[in-house]
Write a structure and sequence with these properties.
- The chain contains 4 helices and 9 strands, in the order H-E-H-E-E-E-E-E-H-E-H-E-E.
- It is of the alpha+beta class.
- The protein has a domain of 125 residues: Bactericidal permeability-increasing protein, domain 1 (Super Roll), CATH 3.15.10.40.
- It has a 6-stranded antiparallel beta sheet. A 3-stranded antiparallel beta sheet has the order 1-9-8.
- A hairpin with a 2-residue loop joins strand 4 and strand 5.
- The longest helix is centred in the N-terminal third of the chain and has 23 residues.
- The radius of gyration is 21 Å and the shape is elongated.
Length: 187
């Protein structure tokens, strides 16, 4: 009987503490961030070196890994379809991109932005296009930085849930944990 009561008490405390956790923070899962990225996944840009090479780039299939590869960072993976116009005529290529960024919470907007984004790896298909596409990579990197500095990767909405509405009102920053973004309500 005593063991059963101890077990029930422990279970009650665990439920109580997990409830307190919901009152002190809001957690956004990797899956939720990926769904938001898919909805806002409309990066399209013309980049290049005037007279030498120009490219129309469309980013797709964007997914995130939160805090797994590097603490405090989000790793993004995506595909860039590239239509190149150069002295060699029109060509097409695909880049498989891996990027890292620092998630930053903007309390006034209730938005999470990805700052300091940088391309850390780019695989080009077909390989014969690698040298042409690599010359465009710094321009693409700069464009992506600007894009994610201006547009949120995730926007809190009071309409989605009570927890998210509370987070939008009381948020005091952002913590990056493996697989999730945590918005604490207190300092």
């Amino acid at each position: 009987m005593k063991k059963a009561m101890s077990g029930l008490l422990a279970l009650f405390l665990a439920v109580l503490l997990s409830g307190c956790n919901q009152l002190t923070q809001y957690t956004i899962s990797e899956q939720e961030v990926n769904q938001a990225l898919q909805k806002r996944n409309n990066f399209e840009k013309d980049v290049g070196v005037s007279g030498l090479v120009n490219a129309h780039i469309v980013l797709s299939d964007l997914t995130s890994q939160i805090g797994r590869e590097e603490p405090g960072k989000i790793t993004l993976s995506g595909k860039a379809n590239i239509n190149v116009s150069s002295l060699f005529g029109p060509q097409q290529a695909e880049m498989l991109l891996k990027m890292k960024a620092q998630p930053v919470y903007n309390a006034q907007e209730g938005a999470i932005y990805l700052h300091n984004l940088s391309i850390v790896d780019a695989q080009v298909v077909p390989e014969k296009m690698a040298s042409i596409v690599k010359t465009l990579t710094p321009y693409l990197n700069q464009s992506l930085q600007h894009y994610f500095n201006e547009r949120p990767a995730y926007l809190l909405s009071a309409d989605r849930s009570k927890g998210e509405a509370l987070a939008k009102k009381l948020a005091k920053g952002l913590e990056v944990k493996p697989g999730q973004l945590v918005i604490p309500f207190t300092d």
